[in-house]
User: Fold this.
Amino acid sequence: MTRPPFRDQPSPDPPFRDPRLPVRTRVEDLLARLTLDERIAMLHQYAPGVERLGLAPFRTGQEALHGVAWMGPATVFPQAVGLGATWNPELVRRVGEAVGREARAMRARDPRVGLNVWSPTVNLLRDPRWGRNEEGYAEDPYLTSALATAYTRGLRGDHPERWRTAPVLKHWLAHNNETDRDTTSSSVRPRVLHEYDLAAFRGAVRAGAVAGVMPAYNLVNGRPNHVSPYLREHLRTWTDQELVVCSDAGAPSNLVDSEHYFDTHEEAIAAALRAGVDSFTDHDQDASKTLARVRGALERGLIDASTVDTAVRRLLAMRCALGEFDDPGGQPRECDGAFDTPAHRALALEAAEQAVVLLTNDGLLPLSESAVRTLAVVGPLADECKLDWYSGSLIRRSSPREALAERLGADRVVFADGLDTVRLRTAAGWIRVPDAAAEGRGPAEAAEGEGPAEAAGTLNPAHAAGRTDLPPLTVGDTPTDLSLADWGGGVLTLRAPSGRYLTVAEDGFVRAAAEQPGGWVVQETFTLEAHPDGHLLRHLGTGGYVCVAAGALKVAERDGGEERTGTAFRLEVVERGEDAVARAAARADAVVVVAGNDPHIGGRETEDRTTLALPAQQQRLWRAAHAANPRTALVLTSSYPYAVAEAADALPALLWTAHGGQAAGTALARVLFGDVSPAGRLPQTWYASDHDLPDPLDYDIIASRATYLYFDGAPLFPFGHGLSYTAFAYGELTVRRETDLTVECEVTNSGPCDGDEVVQIYASAPGSRVPLPHRRLIAHRRVWLRRGERARLFFTVPVEDALGFWDVAHGRWTVDPGAYEIHAGASSADLRATATVTVEGPPPAPRPVPRRGLEAADYDAADGIVLVDRAKVRGDAVACRDDAVGRLLFRACDFGAGVTSMTVEAAYETAGAGNDDAGAGNDTAGAEDDAAGAGNDATVEVHLADGTTLATVTIPPTGGRYAYTTVRAALPTPPAGVRDLHITLRGGGLRLARLGFSG
Assistant:
């Protein structure tokens, strides 16, 4: 029933304005004053103001992954994966606090800056080829949760009632691929769900500093995350707080348009609201379509006004916590904003320093200023300070070259970027950049304070247009030398002598106009394709070929005339980049090669990597430098790991750092020269080869033996790895089990200098009855010790967190009795001390099959299967992968004195049968059939480990994937006692939900 709105009251201070009242009371008061249309309008990301109540417009969603993004200049901290490499929750909390304070300060001068921040990203870095690897903290759920908790606490602030900002965790759930990300389904078995994917979110939500979550684009077990039952079944059970669920951009429309999960948008938005989505990010600032869909769902009876009220209530509670309603003007009485302060600048440097990981060192580092009179600083990233899609604009920058020249003096630093110098020629002449292209004000020279929001007139940088005020490239008698960078896979950028990159604007002309590659669709990348007369130059952003049109370079119209095939270009190499690098290296006492990625190219949102290999051009650079000067260090500055076994073996020093933000260059210089002893640790495994990785869409880390938890091979560098300029000795490790697990460890700085050690505590379960991790991180601490200083560290961990796993046999978290090993060390592979702890208790009970039956998704092992949606609302079923044969194993099934009959609950959709979702809202649908009277298209075979066949059940076509039938079969050889049960599925379109046993 629709609640009538309150009449406007003459009182200037209605209850919702009174900060002395409980939030719930204030929200209920305000909700009652809103009309139904006003409440519906609040469901869109851009909620309008309500003038009669003095409510200002409100926007969900302010990007703030490692600094306030998209709103102009702000302090830029290291990428999230770099913050992960610090292994320092206290540092990350302080970064979150600084970002939250800057958001408050920026909002004070620009109300478009939002306080509902969409950060951090807690998706686990399961596969290093994921395009958004830079956004996550770690491959480990404990470490990710610890850092996410710290960051959100900083963003939220310490006030018991008022929130500095309202953080939203991204992206719920099991989301690690960009390829077809809105249509692929992650098959996540219950153990992986509970032990891995949910665990990353759980700790931060329980800590109470999270305002909500954002569902991911993908599907999990065949069901889109935006209608996930886990929002209700798990997320909302972890806290009493009214969490807000904000959709990802465009995802509500995907439910119909790309995923075809619902027939109409009204059905889709109703299902999302019922599942728990509260704010819809769709069609950018145009709310009309979303609101029309909500009204349509109301008119069709798919939802009622109470469904709308539930979502609006959560949104209003968040806005109330932000202090919006405390004053009639919509601003909180207290604002702790601070922007670009000396403390923030120092923190950016500290974070960048702590993020540097020393991978190998044969004594080259630290460098000595007295011994290194001349230093060669070379490579494509040697003079760069790269940003990513979720960065703010730089207030100040520090590249390695700049920082080292400032430290040593410009005359002692030799630089070469290592790019190939090339010229392009057509039959009509040389390609040249007009002189006028070097004139005019570029983005880097824009007026102080002008950022993307002001310059583009939009909050979304995807809408930013390329420059058209500069002349396009032309054909003439004299060439322009261009710098060519090959970022791998044939993806090239071309840079003019002015420093600007060749780019393509909306008019299709090629200009030297971009300060850096960037944008939602990068317009600065090209590839060369072989042609009898040289090469064709294809522009990757549009897919079109570059041609000469009226004397200027332009991307040909795809549906145009002869020019659509492009112009043939001959590429003349003036100088190879490796030759310039070799010359620079030969002149120097030591060499620093800075290689890696551009965060907008070859591994980014919408684009996964296809290989771990370092681009071939960059491999040639470090080889050339090393051949000319054996005192060569390679610094990999990247958003993700590389497979660099050759470099690790050949070079005397190898370092990695994520893109380190505004202070990246200074931080690296201080590490290289020993001002700071490096103590960053790898937040994910560095594999030796692509062959070490499973399919990117294989989310079953247990079966695929993925991440450090299960990987059986030898990594190039293990999870947690990182060297130091000093050394640390570990003393005795002691473990006590009381209510919690108490671990004590002694660590001594036994090396030549002060420094940080990251003490890592792992648990393992030798001889476990189920496949458990080789070792699992359960605690850690980054501790600074003076030379010779000794510290005794104490860790307290809940026993279930340290030793438990999800028991699929009984549907609960459990700790098996037995002996466990607790390890302390410097990485997951460098364990220095071990202690044993014993858990007493009865042996684990077998599966009570006659009483509980077997849910198909609760298998112990499987092959050739995927998990699918049992119904659109909730539940999982099992189907054959790619219409092949599927096999399931259920261990330790207790049949008691014996069972004589079995029921199989399954659905079978034949080709062309369509999607009958008549049973979508139920766990089962359909009638009970007799196996003897069914067809023979799909079968479920049940047998014991010794090969004894118990039954072969034929499943008839049921009319749809959600139309389940129950087929009963007699068991001529009744099983008894505790036995392993094997099930074989045959038939594409078959979905097995459950088996029951009786008799």
